Amino acid sequence: MATQHSRTAARVMLAPAVILLLGWMLVPLTMTLYFSFKRYLPLRGGDLGWIGFDNYVRFVTSSAFWPSIQATLIIVGGVLVVTVVLGILLALLLDQPMWGQGVVRILVIAPFFVMPTVSALVWKNMFMDPVNGLFAHLWEFFGLTPLEWLSQASLQSIILIVSWQWLPFATLILLTAIQSLNSEQVEAAEMDGAPALSRFWFIILPHLSRAIAVVVLIQTIFLLSIFAEIFVTTQGSFGTRTLTYLIFQRVLESQNVGLGSAGGIYAVILANIVAIFLMRIVGKNLDR
User: Fold this and answer.
1) Which helix (H) or strand (E) holds 98?
2) Reduced to 3 states, what is the DSSP secondary structure of residue 2?
């Protein structure tokens, strides 16, 4: 049983890390909030004084705001569907005994460790190039006209690129959950004559509900700030300008730090709303 002295010592030892973590989070957030109420143009006059909520009104009423929210949610939702569905299928496949199972698992997980800019460049130049890309040669092989992916199917292309990078993460979490399943339940259902689809739907899938909730929560938090893949491929064109990319354009391209800071606060609010909603779902799954 912990004594008062040991608890005090633990707090003292944890204090530097807690203070550093709070500073790491609160200082940028406070500065963003501060600049969001100012008209600050670094290359066009600098600090031009306080303007209240004008930046917030201007940002939310711009013609690009709601399309950026829509593009963000479409990309996040599309990546979640692809990674969860394919993650379950890959996890089931990797759970089966096979030759070279360890090597296969390493190859499946490897894309998660590739930098987003590198993976976007690979997909852009090696796969989606309308002239020399692998998809273009595949289309020509079947007698079809090559598709200009990044202009004709821009959102689908971004979803495909990001899904490829996040699929290993979902697969790893779901594979761990499958391996924790009591095999006696599946064997009993199989002995009772239950078909494979019924065993999956009534035994395996309910067991994976918690893991799926965790995958959705963690991926959503990171996907709301997707930027590198869009910057490397479409640069926000063809309907792929997300909220994060819109903030980038306002701050760096338009050199309006105040307007971009207001957009950053909107991004924080959106992320917190989504996180609270997902945390409620995860909490319900963990209580079962």
Assistant:
1) none
2) coil
Residue type, 159: I
Q: Which domains does the chain have, with CATH numbers?
A: 65-240 (1.10.3720.10)
Per-residue b or e along 197-230, where b marks 16 or more CB atoms closer than 10 Å to that residue's CB: eebeeebbeeebeebbbbbbbbbbeebbebbbbb
Determine phi and psi for 50, rounding to 5 degrees. Answer: -80, 140
The C-alpha atoms of residue 278 and residue 243 are separated, in whole angstroms, by 20
Q: Which two tokens stand for residue 206?
A: 């309910």
- Residue entry with tokens 């209580």: 287
Structural element, H or E, at residue 41: strand 38-41
d(CA 77, CA 273): 15
pLDDT at 70: 92
Q: What is the mean pLDDT of each run of 10 residues along the chain (288 residues)?
A: 70 82 81 85 73 86 89 92 92 79 75 85 88 86 85 90 91 87 73 74 81 88 89 88 88 80 87 80 62
Q: CA 79 to CA 83: how far, in whole Å?
A: 6
Distances (CA, A) of 139 to 135, 150, 186, 233: 6, 16, 42, 21
User: CA 126 from chain center: how many Å?
Assistant: 23
Tell me, what amino acid is at 61? Answer: T
Give the pLDDT confidence score for residue 100 in this predicted structure. 67
Rg, Å, the chain Cα set: 24
Nearest to residue 74, comparing CAs of 5, 157, 2? 157
CA distance 127 to 119: 11
Phi and psi (nearest 5°) for 15?
-55, -45
Token code pair at residue 232? 């490397």
Predicted confidence at residue 78, as pLDDT, reads 94
